[in-house]
Every structure is written in structure tokens, then in C-alpha cells.
Amino acid sequence: MIPAIEFLLAVSIVTAAAAMLLETGLRHLGLPTRWPWLAALALGPGLLAARLTGAGPVSAPAPLALGSVIELPGVGTSGVGPWVAGMDGVAALVWLASAMWVLAVVARAHRGLTLESAGWERARVMGRSVFLSTDRGPAVAGVWDPWIVLPRWVLALPERELRLILVHEEEHVLAKDTRLLGAALGLVALTAWNPVAWWHLRRLRAAVEVDCDRRVLTREPDRATYGASLLSVAARGVGPSLGLAAFTEGSCNLKRRILAMTAKATAWTALGGGVLVALGVVVGVQACGIESPVEPQTEAVQSPVESPAPVPAPTDPELRKAPVPTPHTKAPDLVNRAEVAAAMETAYSAELRAQMAGTATVYIFIDEQGDASNVVIQKSSGHPALDEAALTVARVMRFIPAENRGAVVPVWVSLPITFQAR
Asked: Where are the beta strands (DSSP E) in 40-145?
């Protein structure tokens, strides 16, 4: 499987566990529960984008893997951006196709809702401006300028139930829930192939409704009537169009909402909520530490292994002359990726791209300051011009120095550099 896809799946699974803990804990504490699920949706794409664009912290880089190839962008690089970095063509196509599918579904739903709403009647119900539909709603539509939709049959409900339904939808408008759900759908579109992301969205929608129920019951503390109104709407309501914040959404969510608003608080509720929130934070932090999948990588002349004692290295002038095994327990990490990419564009000129492509493997001596103070060709690309370009690029590289048992040491590493016009 493509490393970036594996990374996003791993982050999604870990953040799902963290969000479940946080949601339960925050509910026990009487606090909003939507934010953990929104964070779960955003964290994976955010981490991947930050690390692929070099925006992530260089103070805690991912470990360097052995035997990997670095491909630095030339002028002919695709403009798709970091989302397809490290993926083959088929995976990139599937990724983009799934995103386009989501956008097409949203556009179709929006068009259908626009056409349907043309036949709705604007009215005032209990002092509130609403649209009356045949059977759509109760719900809130519109992302930037939300409006309430009521089916005509709710007007026949008891006055108290109708009032609570209106208060519920009014709370959605005040909290700008349609904007939040629109943003969440946009995040899902970034990784539409990921089933865990869709599950995050489902749980977010449920959390939005639970939060809204809590606010309604704070304003109108009548659980019995409110529960009756939920059941009345669930018995006759039609599923909402994509992107609507609706009064009821499915039997599972309805059960979760009723359990949430009828839960009894005890002396241990707040303590348990605090413990669950703390655990959720710990698990969420672990998601941030999942190893980055697409990084420029190097191959050590000798694999770093933990030795029983530091291995004495040759004297510095002697070590610098030619590649030799250099023991280390922590590999160096490239830190100036943007400069290296620019050097690659310059060294691999348009004339060279038109004539040749290949891979040159370079030995790089990285001193205690992290500078590439000596570079030599290990394996030729078969083209002297490409070999010279590879040496030019290697000389630009700067690293976090290697360490051996906690001490900074100079090392030789082997790095394949691929020249390929795209």
C-alpha cells in the first residue's frame, strides 16, 4: 500500500480512539463534544501536508529509513502538490477521483435542494421566519446564510413540541453548525477514499446534535416533551439532504442522543470525565508522533546499530578523505529540503531533461555541524553530466548531525538522487 495512504489510515484510526475518549469525557463534564471529531478529521491531512511541505518541526524529524530513493522536484514536476507526493500514478488517480466524486455529489445535492426549495413557502411560525416544505426537515440549510426548513405536518404537533423543535433549529443557526459541517465535508473530500474519515464525519454530525440538545435543554428544561418531539419527528421525518443540520438523523444517533440527555450525573461523573479527557489527549498526542511516510531519506554505509560502547572513529582529516564505515545510533536528517529542491531544478537544466534521465548514488560526508563537507560518486548514473549534477545537489544539503550513543559524530551516508523529467 502507498505510504501516504498507510499514514493517513493509521492517523485516522488513532484519532478515532482519541476522539471517542474525549467525546465521552467532555459529555460527562457537560462540555461541547463536537471538537474532538473535527480535530480527528483535520489532523491526518494537516500532518501530511505539514511534513510534505517542510512546515513540520525539524527539531523532531522522522527517522531515516535505509535503502530509499529521494526524488526532488524539477521544473516538470506535476502541480498537483504534496497530496500525491510519494504515490504512483494509479493511487494518485484514485485519490483525486474520490475527491472529485465527493464534490460532484455535493454539487448535485445542492442543485437538488435549490430546485426543491423553489416550491417552498416562506412563513412565520411562533415568531420565527421559516420555509415550509412538503416533507423535508425539520432542518437548517444554507452554509453562510442558514435558514430553517419545516415540513408542513409538524404544524399539527402539540404547541410545546413545535416550540422545542423551533428552538433546536434556532440553536443550530446561532452555533453556525452548517458552516462547521460544511468544513468537515471539505476535510472528508481531501481523503474521500478513507472509510475512517467518513465515520469521523458521521460521529461529528451526531456530536453536533448532542451539543444542540444540551443547549436546548438548558434554555427549555423539559426533557419529557423534548424526547416526545424527537420521537414524533423520527417517526415521520425524511432523511436530510447532504450538508443539512437536521432535527433527527437515524435510529443509532437518536438512541445516542436520548441516552446523553437522560444520563444521571453522580459524584464520580466529573472525575471520570476528567480521566477520559486526559486519556484522549494522550492518545491524540500519539497520533501526532506517527512516522512521516514521505521524507527524503538516506542509506548509511553501515547500518546504525547499538554498540556496547562507542566505537572510536578515525581522525577527522582521515575520515573525511574517503567513505568508510561510520557507526552511529541516530541517523542524520535532511533539514533544507526547499534549498535542495531549488538546487535540483538548477542542476537538472532543461537541456539535460531533454536529453537524459537516471539515478546517481552519492556518498556524502556529514560533519559535526551537519554540513556535506565531502561528496563522491558511489554509483554512476551512466551520464557524466548527471553525476556532476548529483554532486552539485549533494553539496547543498544540510543535516541534523548523526549521533552515536548521544554524542554528535561525523558520518558517511549513501544517497540515491533520481533525475527524471515529469
From this structure: 121-125, 128-133, 139-141
